[in-house]
Amino acid sequence: MPTFYDPGADAGEASEALRGLAHASRNFEHPGDLYGVLSDLLYGVRSMRQVLDQLARAHIDHRPLAFDDYGDHEIGSKAALAAADELHQAATLIDQVEERLDAAHAASGRVAWRDEPAEQLIPVQRWISVCFLQGEDADEVLRVIDDDGVDSALNFLKNWDYGDETTNSALENGYVYDLPPTGPLEQEVRNGNYDMTYSHSFGHVGLYRLHEITPDDAIDKREVLRRSASSWFEHPGVAAVKRERGLGL
Questions:
Q1: Closest Cα to residue 47, out of 100, 6, 11?
Q2: Which of 235, 232, 249 shows the shortest CA–CA distance to 134?
Q3: If residue 17 lies in a helix (H) or strand (E), which one and from where to where?
Q4: What strands lie across the sheet with 187-191, from one edge to the other?
Q5: Model confidence band, residue 122 (pLDDT cutoffs 50, 70, 90)
Q6: Per-residue model confidence as pLDDT tens digits over 168-183
Q7: Residues 13-44, buried b or exposed e (16+ Cβ, 10 A)?
Q8: In this structure, what DSSP letter does residue 201 have?
Q9: CA–CA separation, 196 vs 154, rounded Å?
Q10: For residue 126, what is the enclosing H or E element?
């Protein structure tokens, strides 16, 4: 228990209390206790600021009694002044500690701790449509496939990818898929984050890019499982060609 009159005894008491806190705070079984601990520490830091100032003043006030081990008063007096100066510097640094601790205390006060953790969120990767070509544009790419191979055609189609602009356009228009849309009589080639589908029979070519939704925007596991039950979607352009040619979907 503090004496409130014996600095030496109370300093020892404070030291033991901090040692105990250092040991006890290695694990918080009840996070709701964090705010209260921060409150007590904040009050303790404010008291520490006062203690450092008072220690500095005591070194100055008692300079007439200051000597070194060989009885030299001048050396002892200078050492007392040096100690007082360092203590003042330490007190100034404590002001910064108090400011940061006060901010942490305020932020902790805005946390509502619960007994059960939040449901885990997982990042999701979806395929977005980069381009879908028909007619003469598709014929040109199909010729590249026949003449130079699928890799050359896929690299050629990457010129239609404008990064965020393409991504935002696909998201706004709903051209987002669990898997790149493919169907009968269509071929598929994948290279890294790109997937190209094409069909000589239908005369179209499509390019899709894998897009990762950030954890902040991720959906939960139940939503992933729900969508996986209907993970195949056909690009509207493909469906339109099939309807035009009287082919079943």
A1: 11
A2: 235
A3: helix 7-24
A4: 176-177, 124-134, 204-213, 194-199, 187-191
A5: low
A6: 999 888 888 888 888 7
A7: eeeeeeeeeeeeeeeeeeeeebbeebeebbeb
A8: T
A9: 6
A10: strand 124-134
First to last CA, the chain: 83
Least confident of 36-40, 79-83, 235-239: 235-239
Domain-by-domain residue ranges, the chain?
Answer: 7-109, 124-244
* Integer CA distances (angstroms), 19 to 12, 15, 16, 111, 146, in order: 11, 6, 5, 27, 77
Provide DSSP, 158-199: GGG--THHHHHHHHHHT-EESS----TT-EEEEETTEEEEEE
CB burial of residue 243 (10 Å; 0-12, 13-18, 19+): exposed
- Does 120 score more than 70 pLDDT? no
> Do 120 and 215 contact (CB within 8 A), yes or no?
no
Say what the pTM is.
0.48
- Which amino acid does the sequence have at 33? D
Burial of 245 (0-12, 13-18, 19+ CB in 10 A): exposed
* Minimum mean pLDDT range among 43-52, 109-118, 195-204: 109-118
